[in-house]
Amino acid sequence: MPPATRPALVSCAAVGKSYGGPLLFEGLTFVVHEGDHIGLVGPNGAGKSTFLKILGGVEDPDSGTCTRRKNLRIGYVAQTPVFARRMTAAQVVAEGAATDAHLDDHEREERVRHALRQARFADPEVPADSLSGGWKARLALARELARAPDLLLLDEPTNHLDVESILWLETLLRNASTTFVVVSHDRYFLDRVCTRLLVIEGDRLEAHLGNYSDWRRRVHESRRPEAPVAQPPPKPTSKPPSAKPPSASTAAREADKDRERERRRLARRVETLEADVSKLEAELAAVRAELAADHGGDWQKLHTLADRERELDALLAKRMAEWEAASAAVLNQSAPSTD
Length: 339
Known about the structure:
Helices cover 46% and strands 17% of the residues. It has nine helices and nine strands. The chain has helices at residues 48-56, 89-97, 105-118, 133-145, 163-174, 187-193, 212-222, 248-292, 299-334; strands at 8-17, 25-33, 37-41, 63-68, 74-77, 151-155, 179-183, 196-201, 204-209. Strands 5-6-7-3-8-9 form a six-stranded mixed sheet, with helices on both faces. β6 (151-155), α5 (163-174) and β7 (179-183) form a beta-alpha-beta unit. The relative contact order is 0.11.
């Protein structure tokens, strides 16, 4: 069913945010509809995490409005989860279930057990302080699932997850009836869980149907230069041309040529970055395949592979951010001049 035909959960109109300095973004308008599975992407510093917080009511916009459906239940999972000290996993998740006043004690306990099972916690009494980064991420998600949210907001949820945990999260989100918006630099993750994509940059927020690869394909197609129009050869003249200052039309043509040269330079940069990204993705896939194989207890090899996986993840995120910025620059160069 097309998004516009489904009920709206959150409606943002001309939203802006600055934090007291230069504008982070302004004029962003968007509607989250029931059943949406949305990926939110953009260059580093574009304000993705801030926009996610505004959607969830964690922060208020400096300008514009953001309205939510009455009694909307929202779950928000931050990049770095925070738990009260000396709490067990069950107690942390119980905080989420406690926000639903309609549950009796038995229903609340069952809600907690179900959320812990979804997150695959074998021991509900494990101290939250003792968990690794990946299991803390699972616990933070379990706490929000215990709220039975109508809208789930996730900020870089794969940052601390290993391969097995990423696959678990993909399965959970793909099968979820819950509406969600997720910020991520992991293109494979976005491809598997999202059916809509939001691209945020400055005062622009573009919505696209499809996943990350669908969007990249459309960007690539929009960069293809049009075939040049054949010009008739100049007519011979017996009079030598008189030296005249360049006309306004000549200056405009020169400016167009300069813009075209810059656009081609940027397009070459994008193609180079795309090749880098493809190589990194292939190497990362190979490393992850090795990690998933049986190593017969060779922990040194596993640690080496895990270190390489983290290095490749970081480098891939950097190259993806550079690609997104370069692609946006190409689109800006392709936009009609307002001179």
